Amino acid sequence: xxxxxxxxxxxxxxxxQPVREGADIFTATVVDAVELSPGLRRLTLRAAEFRxxxxxxxxxxxxxxxxxxxxxxxxxxxxxxxxxxxHADYLPPEERPGLRWYTVRRLDxxxxxxxxxxATHGVSPGDLDSDxxxxxxxxxxFTLRARPGDLVGYYPAHGxxxxxAERQILIADASSAPxxxxxxxxxxxxxxxxxxxxxxxxVVEGDGDLEPGAVDAWRPEVGSLRVARAPFERQAAAAAAExxxxxxxxxxxxxxxxxxxxxxxxxxxxxxxxxVGGWGVSPDDVRWTPYWILGxxxx
Length: 299
Prior knowledge:
Blueprint: E1 26-37, E2 40-46, E3 61-66, E4 98-103, E5 106-108, E6 113-119, H1 138-145, E7 151-156, E8 168-172, H2 177-190, E9 198-204, H3 214-218, E10 224-229, H4 235-248, E11 258-264, H5 265-279, E12 286-292
Parallel strand pairs: 8-9, 8-11, 9-10, 11-12
Antiparallel strand pairs: 1-2, 1-7, 2-6, 3-4, 3-7, 5-6
Helix pairs in contact: 4-5
């Protein structure tokens, strides 16, 4: 699947956080599930609704309703607003799908397909216990076991990134790195001259957490791209240390007028604190969002 086409986006100059109104849940079919690297798995979905889906931004997130292990997905009732997390509560517990949030990696309207990448943190299908005793959440369990023909529910949400700033920094861990690549692809389509003023900081356990070839492909295109390596429990501290190092060196990234810091909650917050307190970026110009929370589901 090539990069998402320019025509698939609602707008090209995203000056404010996008919103989407009137979204509903629809059923999609898994058509492909591949391991991109030891810590990254890609699922491709197909649905007629993807032909008409217009993305609000390159890092648009969505809700994925996944069937319980060993069960077939039951199509959900139409969603008319309210608490999306409680929408499936009318189903018996043994048939109730789990809900997790992911971001669009690429959309192909012509084929009616959409793919997204999931950080598996090195967990393989063989590591999963049939009784759930491995403590993996529904998202990881489904991702590792998904096969072509499996059905899921798809709930489109909206993007978070704003693209108006002349200079900006994107900070990510393994879970949010796919969004960084999607953002850079979008900028290369609509405003390629801006890439040279974009800076990227990735904090991962190892190269196996990242899409193969992405770092080498984008490093010469952007202002700078740094990869820091640290175990889970030290990634927040590692990210903050990298930002302090950039500030001490007077790196061009420190002139950023906008920052996007997403990933595990403690990492995102540590970056926000350093960007505001150390770099002097306005709190209004720092988008920090927990993609996940170590040890428990994201609320």
